[in-house]
């Protein structure tokens, strides 16, 4: 009986792993957003070093990892946010640089189990990273500089209300030259 349970558990893990894909930007997709839109549960998106000029909106995704290979730069131009994570579970963003976003480098709202790791944000007019109405957000080894308000805000305003993020961790981050 025990062997049958172990065999079933191994098959379940292999089936989950087998269904996950690695999507390459720009090899498979011209933009990060196109890869995000095509991504399924458990997929990994790897973004090649370069400058990317469009904002990325990650919505209603589960278990998605987005990795910047070589520190790709997000210069979103007139967009207010570089990456937005909205109503997601199990998202990892790792290894990106956000340069002079109009408002914020990364915004996470209504999401659970989000990890932001080894990202750099410079020159946001508001917060470098802002979260609202989330749980289990981990922000680690990020560098945030020259922000107009907060380096990291765990209770960013949603309209008129500030909705806190709960059960979250910020560690080994460097924040400098931010107003608050």
Overview of this structure, please?
This protein is mainly β. The chain contains two helices and 20 strands. It has helices at residues 2-19, 32-38, and strands spanning 22-25, 44-48, 51-52, 56-59, 62-69, 73-74, 81-86, 89-94, 97-99, 104-109, 112-117, 120-122, 129-132, 135-140, 143-145, 152-153, 157-158, 161-162, 169-171, 174-176. Strands 1-2-5-8-11-14-19 form a seven-stranded parallel β-sheet, with helices on one face. Strands 3-6-9-12-15-20 form a six-stranded parallel β-sheet, with no helix packed on it. A five-stranded parallel β-sheet has the order 4-7-10-13-16. It starts with a helix and ends with a strand. Residues 1-17 have low confidence and may be disordered.
Helices and strands in order, then pairings?
Layout: H1 2-19, E1 22-25, H2 32-38, E2 44-48, E3 51-52, E4 56-59, E5 62-69, E6 73-74, E7 81-86, E8 89-94, E9 97-99, E10 104-109, E11 112-117, E12 120-122, E13 129-132, E14 135-140, E15 143-145, E16 152-153, E17 157-158, E18 161-162, E19 169-171, E20 174-176
Parallel strand pairs: 1-2, 2-5, 3-6, 4-7, 5-8, 6-9, 7-10, 8-11, 9-12, 10-13, 11-14, 12-15, 13-16, 14-19, 15-20
Antiparallel strand pairs: 17-18
């Amino acid at each position: 009986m025990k062997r049958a349970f172990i065999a079933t558990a191994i098959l379940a893990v292999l089936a989950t792993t087998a269904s996950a894909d690695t999507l390459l930007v720009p090899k498979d997709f011209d933009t990060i957003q196109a890869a995000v839109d095509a991504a399924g549960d458990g997929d990994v998106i790897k973004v090649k070093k370069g400058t990317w000029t469009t904002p990325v909106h990650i919505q209603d995704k589960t278990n998605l990892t987005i990795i910047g290979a070589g520190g790709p730069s997000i210069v979103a131009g007139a967009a207010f946010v570089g990456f937005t994570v909205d109503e997601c579970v199990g998202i990892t963003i790792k290894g990106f640089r956000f340069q002079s976003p109009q408002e914020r480098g990364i915004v996470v709202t209504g999401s659970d189990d989000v990890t932001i790791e080894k990202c750099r944000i410079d020159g946001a007019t508001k917060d470098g990273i802002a979260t609202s109405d989330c749980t289990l957000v981990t922000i680690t080894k990020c560098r945030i500089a020259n922000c107009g308000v907060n380096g990291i805000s765990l209770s960013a305003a949603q309209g008129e209300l500030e909705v806190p993020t709960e059960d979250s961790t910020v560690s080994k981050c460097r924040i400098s030259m931010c107003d608050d």
